[in-house]
Amino acid sequence: RVREADEPHEADNKASAVPSQVPSLQSGGTLSTASSTPVVVRPKKPLLLGLTRKPSIIDTPASAPAPSALSWKMLLEHGEEAQQLQDVYDVEEAVRGKGSFGTVRIARLRSAPSVVRAVKAVSKRTLKEESIVRREIDVLRRLDHPCICRLTETFEDDRAIYLVMEFIDGRELFDEIVERGHLDEASAAHVMNQVFGALRYCHERRVIHRDLKPENVMVQKRTCVDGTAGGQAEELQVKLIDFGLAVICCSPSAKGRTGSSVAGSMDYMAPEARRGRSGAAADLWSCGVMLHVLLAGFMPEGEVLIGDQPLDFDQPQYSQLSSSARNLLLGLLKPDPTQRITAADAADHPWTRGSGMGGSPLRSSGPLIEALTDFQRSMKLRRAALTALAMQLTGQELERLREQFMLIDEDRNGRISKEELARSVAELAPVQGADEVKRWVESVFDAVDTDGSSEIEYTEWLS
């Protein structure tokens, strides 16, 4: 659907940008344009306030990265000869989901049927589709975070490229909002805490998502201990998905720009992104719109969405909103990207940090210290095998380790430092004195930090 618009006016510099040609509807309901050059127009009517699924505008990458060679992990898991998808996985015929360029099916590992994966198949019938999926693979291989859906491996034949992804037994955040109407502040803070942490991790690796919206956030319900009531409560675990529009920028700065293409979902798109000048700050604007939807249950008004006016908290629908939540929303929805808060700022905001993370699993995890010590003493080949096996973890064990990782990762940057590990295990370690704890942490890091980054990544922690 295309909004009606008046003719452009030269003096009108407060307007949204739309592609210069009428979009065409591709398979999967995705809008694409023949040209990415934006034209300034003034919409006749404000954007709809109702909450509906938003299509993404897709751009074409300038070049496609070359496919990576078969990793040692795949050799350990499947053997040197198994290079085709059907040799490794039993793939269901039923299609579980459809995207802009591909379909998603469920697959089970032949050697271990209890291991379930999601397989995204993207046709190679056009260079555009192939280049987009290769860019997505290049992006996903940079990311290893508990709140980002992991790419485990890829396969390729003459017809398609197959992305074998972590299977998420949950649903879209969009569906959660539709069912509940909106989330209370504590639940919303817990969700955004995880989103901001994952986004901070991405931006530090120069990855910009460019299409953040509730439809691209998967949530899983888990039962946790309610510290206030002494009983049990449900909380939502978050996984960011769909990095098909993500790009790798040349600058690690959160204010860096990605180029001059228009990509994303219009109602979640930052004002500068509508004009083809998006950077990492545009992801934070999208988070602001998403946070508004979480708390209010509807989209901000049209003039707010295009950056013409700030949120008006004097309206009755915002009467129950805390001052801290209002402050965060204003920081995220600043029209000027240079004034907008960063992902690190948002993750450290008092409203975000006030979210409860449930009971501390570290205090009930006796084998934690022994497991780290055992890994440190393992032979190098055994460590490699354990790293491969870590990719197959599912169920309660994966959930427990994920929660431990996020508790130890105090600054939410997606990595565990030596200082964070030392502080977290000091009370549990069977040693005496700060010096002995430090020596123990150093020895563990020498073994666990397999990539030499001086920090423990998520998969290294699972190993």
Report on this model:
The chain is of the alpha+beta class and 463 residues long. Strand 7 and strand 8 form a beta hairpin. Strands 6, 7, 8, 9, 10 and 11 form a six-stranded antiparallel beta sheet that branches. A three-stranded mixed beta sheet has the order 2-3-5, with no helix packed on it. It folds into three domains: 69-166, Phosphorylase Kinase, domain 1; 171-251 and 263-354, Transferase(Phosphotransferase), domain 1 (Orthogonal Bundle); 365-462, Recoverin, domain 1. The chain has helices at residues 72-78, 85-88, 127-140, 173-180, 185-204, 271-274, 280-296, 302-305, 323-332, 343-347, 350-353, 367-377, 380-390, 395-408, 418-425, 434-448, 458-462; strands at residues 16-19, 24-25, 31-32, 38-41, 57-58, 89-91, 97-98, 102-109, 112-123, 151-156, 160-166, 171-172, 207-208, 217-225, 232-240, 247-248. The protein is 35% helix and 16% strand. Residues 1-49, 60-76 and 355-366 have low confidence and may be disordered. Helix 7 packs antiparallel against helix 9 (323-332) and helix 12 (367-377) packs across helix 16. Residues 90-352 form the Protein kinase domain.
How much strand? 15-25%
Give the % helix. 25-40%
CATH class wording of the largest domain: Mainly Alpha
- Distinct helical segment count: 17
Count the domains: 3
CATH superfamily of the largest domain: Transferase(Phosphotransferase) domain 1
As residue ranges, the low-confidence spans are 1-49, 60-76, 355-366
* Overall spatial form: globular
Averaged pLDDT: 75
Please give the radius of gyration in angstroms: 23 Å
Just name the CATH architecture of the largest domain.
Orthogonal Bundle
β-strand number: 16
Largest sheet properties: 6 strands, antiparallel
Q: Could you please say which CATH topology of the largest domain applies here?
A: Transferase(Phosphotransferase), domain 1
Q: End-to-end span in angstroms? A: 48 Å
Helix/strand structural class: alpha+beta
